[in-house]
Write a structure and sequence with these properties.
Largest sheet: 6 strands, antiparallel
Strand content: 25-35%
Order of helices and strands: HHEEEEEHEEEEEH
Number of strands: 10
Oligomer: single chain
Structural class: alpha+beta
Number of helices: 4
Length: 208
Amino acid sequence: MTQEKKRFSDTRFYPIFFMIIVSVIFVGILATFYELTAPRVKAYQQESNQKIILGLFGLPTQAPQQAFDKFIEEKQQDDIVYYEAIQQNRLLGFAFPIRGKGLWGTIDAVVAVSPDFTKIIAFDVIKQNETPGLGGRITEKKFKNQFQNKDLLQNNELVKYNLVAEDAVEDKYEISQITGATLSSRAVVNMLYNELKDIKESLGVSYE
C-alpha cells in the first residue's frame, strides 16, 4: 500500500519555515520604517540639542536653527567638540557635551562654563537611564539648577562638589543629593569633575 505523501504544511518543518518568513518580513518592515523616519529623528535630536545649548546661555530658543547659527560656533580641539557662545561680540562662555556612568547606564549631559573656566553657567541632562522617580530626578530643575553659577575653583584647583542630604546645603561647594538616589546624584558630580578635568587639561586651561 502506497503511503500518502504529506503536505509540507503538515510537516514539522513548516512552523520553523513559517516563522523565518514572518521574521524576514517583520525585519524588512522595521528596516523600511527606520530608513523613512531616521532623518526626521536626527533632525529632532539636533533641534533638541540646539535648544539645550542655547538655553544654557539664556539665548532665544524659539527658532533654534537660526539662533544657533547666529550665536553658537562649533569648535574642536583634538577629540573634544565644544561650542562657543557669542552675543553682540561678547564671549558668553563654552558648552561641552559630557558623558558619565550612571547607576543603570550612560548619562549624557552638557555643561556651560564661563570664558575663564571658573564658574559653571548652567548644566542640563540630555539622556539618562536612571530609575524613574529616583535617580531619574537628575533631570528635574530643582537638581540641575543647583549648578547654575557654581564656582569651579577651590584653592585654585578644580573642585569636586560634596554631596549632602536633600535641602541641606550650607556651603557653596555642596550639592543637595536626591533622596533615595545617592548613587545617581554622585554619578553626576563625578561626571562633571572627571569630564571637566579632562577638558581643562586638553584645552590647556591654567589657573596660575
